[in-house]
Amino acid sequence: QVHMVESGGGLVQAGGSLRLSCSVPGIVFSRTTMGWYRQAPGKQRELVAYITQYGATYYAASVKGRFTISRDNAKSTVYLQMNSLKPEDTAVYYCNLFPFRPDSWGQGTQVTVSS
What is the H or E stretch that residue 22 is in? Predict the structure, then answer.
């Protein structure tokens, strides 16, 4: 089991920005592919983005060009910079390994985008 600690969510108007952080102590972070996921009300959890140990990135089509995933191996932290937010980005955002570990979901951080 890996313990994730997400933070940085909040309420923002459409077009605004937020930066999410996820601290992941206790693993060899620098060798781990990390992902951000989200779950909107009434919908299944979905992959938003991931970043490999080499810095290669992947983005879901719905966020490409607006979100940026990054990592700081010295701090064992992964970030998600979210710009040009839309109401449909409203969800609880989680980080986890990629592929995810079912036993390692944290509490998530709520992002609410008002129109």
Answer: strand 18-23
Locate 70 and state its tokens: 């990054």
Q: Residue 98 in contact with residue 59, Cβ under 8 Å?
A: no
CA dist., res. 15 & res. 11, Å (int) = 12
Between the CA of residue 63 and those of 33, 76, 106, what are the distances in Å?
19, 24, 22
* CA 39/CA 106 separation, integer angstroms: 13
Any residues with CB less than 8 A from the CB of 104 and at least 6 apart, and which?
Answer: 1, 2, 3, 4, 96, 97
pLDDT in tens, 12-49: 999 999 999 999 987 788 899 999 999 999 999 999 99
